[in-house]
Structures are given as structure tokens and as C-alpha cells.
Amino acid sequence: QPLSPPAIVLHDSSYRLFSEGTEASVGLEELAESGSNASLIEEAKTYDSVIQTIAGGSIILPGASEEFTLRLEADLDGGLDAALAESEISLVTMLVNTNDAFTGEKNIDISDFEINQSKSFNGPVWDSGTEENSETAASIPGPAANGEGFNSSRENDVNKVIFHAGVVSKDDGLSSSALTQAHRFDQPASRIRITRIQ
To answer: Which CATH number is associated with domain 7-195?
Structure first.
């Protein structure tokens, strides 16, 4: 599954990009349905708890990777370690050949990172709960179908972020699906590596 340009947010511990079992924001809905990170980034910027945002600019193909650099200003009283003490990172990206699936991680605590230390995290696949997982050509925005992306109408009775059960595909008996076995995905679907460089 190709991944959409990610949305990356550096924030304090009070911010939640999403929470399992709660309704997705409009910005997250748009990313999960269309792959566009613009609304989610603008949404994040309205929070005082958000320190920095990065909007990725390109699709990440299967097996490929992308690198981004976040900058955290040193606290005037306690230096960089004090600024790190309350800092977390959240990032999400859409699996583009799905209705509204996204992968990533939220509220990664970076307070105890030493200089040059790296940590890796698995990104589960989540269902934003904002669109039925019909898998029809009209509803899949990725190259498998080039259908509709974001639709503000929430047609899914679930309407909350849940762990994604996976796609069915036409190969597994859903005749109306635009997807094949090549579009199935494992859990987790992404790997996130964070390194403190200063």
C-alpha cells in the first residue's frame, strides 16, 4: 500500500491528534479519506499545545522511507532538556488504496531521548470510522481506482476511530471491490524511527 504525504505534529502532552474510540476530527477525516494532510496541519496549528507541524509533500511507496527534521527551541530557564520534558510527536498517513484507513502513531514521548539516541515504533492501521469500507472504485482515491477522496458526509455508523480489520478485496469474495490481494496489508503497516540529533 502506498502511503500519502504524512502529517507530523510536535506538541506537548495535552494534545491528541486522535484517540481510539472517539470521533475523528474533520482534518483527520480528510487525511484518512483523501490522503491530503493540509486540513489536519491547519487544524493542529490552532492549538496552543502544538509546537511545530510538518506536512509531507510526496507519496511514500511500499518499502521506501522519508526523513523529516523537527526543531525544538530550548526553554529559557531549563535549556533543551526542559523543553523536551513535555514534548511528544504524533504522525499519520493514509493507506491510499483504502476507504479511510491510516497508519502512524500518537503521543510518542521524546522526553528521555539522549543525543544521537534512536527509537523505533510500529505504526498500527486505524479506521477513521468516517466512511463505509465498501472498497468500490468510486470510493477509493488511490491508484487502484482513482475514485472520490474526501466526502464530508459521514456515512459510517461507527463514526469513531477503531483498529482496522483489513480490506476484503475481490479475491476474497467481495465482488464490488476495486481491490485485489495485492492491496491487503499486515498490522502494523509502518515503521517510525526517531533520532535526537542535538
So the answer is: 2.60.40
Mean pLDDT, each 10-residue run in order, the chain (198 residues): 98 96 97 97 97 97 96 74 85 97 97 94 97 92 84 76 95 93 94 95
- Which set of grid coordinates corresponds to residue 108? 510518542
Sequence-separated (6 or more) residues with CB below 8 Å from residue 21: 160, 161, 162
pTM of this structure: 0.91
CA–CA distances in Å: residue 48 to residues 11, 14, 45, 86? 9, 10, 8, 13
Write the CB contacts of 136 (distance below 8 Å, at least 6 apart in sequence). Answer: 145, 147, 176, 177, 178
Q: Tell me the β-bridge partners of 101.
A: 127
Contact yes or no for 149/87 (Cβ under 8 A)? no
- Using alpha carbons only, what angle is made at residue 13 by residues 7 and 15, rounded to the nearest 5 degrees? 50
Sheet of 87-94: strand order equals 50-55, 7-12, 87-94, 101-109, 125-127, 162-163
User: Which residues, 6+ apart, have CB-to-CB distance to 155 below 8 Å?
Assistant: 131, 132
Amino acid at residue number 41: I
